[in-house]
What we know:
By secondary structure, this protein is α/β, with parallel strands linked by helices. About 45% of the residues lie in helices and about 20% in strands.
Amino acid sequence: MFKKTLASTVGAVLLLGMTACGSSDDAGGAAGGSTSGGGDDAITMGFAQVGAESGWRTANTASIQASAEEAGVELQFSDAQQKQANQIQALRSYIQQQVDVIAFSPVVETGWDTVLQEAKRAGIPVILTDRSIDSPDDTLYATFLGSDFVAEGEKAGEWLVEDSAGADQVNVVELQGTTGAAPAIDRKEGFESAIAGADNIEVVASQTGDFTRSGGRQVMEAFLQSQPDIDVVYAHNDDMGLGAIEAIEAAGMVPGEDIKIITVDAVKDGMQALADGKISFIVECNPLLGDQLMELADQVVAGEEVPKRVVVEETTFTQEEAAAALPDRQY
Length: 331
Ligand code: GZL
Ligand code: ZN
């Protein structure tokens, strides 16, 4: 059994290897059919990623790298450890290298105009992915590809309004994403607008956990000390929700019963906690932007018109839906 498997695995790898190198050598070989299928007409993309702060981020990175490989796009990739200065430095190095196109997920909404002006002067088009910028000058980027974070916040709030119908008082603590980041600002705004009409729901505390599991745990520990009665945690991503679960269990309480948790992302660890009943509801945020990014890059480099904003499809999950969806989840 093992020998057979090994032989077939080796065979597959070789084939894969040949296909890949085949697509880069011959211009229009079977594997390299599309114009961007490798070879000297390959476009070069400089991608400045936020960091590796969450399960969502690593899934997003994997998608971009896999899609670049498949599309024959030559990818320069950098991880900014969630620091804007590092991202700006990476953008400047891509400008220096005169890449064909720049793509990045701005860690925060502001402070980009200068470096994006430099890219514009260098004639290098910029694509924003995942997070957007808040700038009056929308000529600084060709298009934005990502989610509608306000809608994500609204979906979370609408679920809570329904789930709280009939309850006398529902106290919510909010674990915000990175301060100044578009998903943090918009998920807060969307949630607040959705619960505005429900006078039995109140956000009694709100603080950033910086989208990390440890951040979520530390802030939740503090909330458990300072808040006499917490009924619900609204976490801007699964990772902070999973950190909150650790804090709640360490305090001897039962997540999903004593305190309900609502999160955003729907990465595997979050979906598992949802199926296990520790999280009550998850709003999906789709990290698989790679294929659409490579298509947009081709069009932008070819000087074709593209929409200013491309919003990706995403849904929501209850505990039952998570249990059913888990086996097919890619990330
Ligand atoms: C959302 C993305 C957020 C995720 C977090 O598109 O920017 O950043 O929700 C990640 O998990 O850290
Ligand atoms: Zn209560």
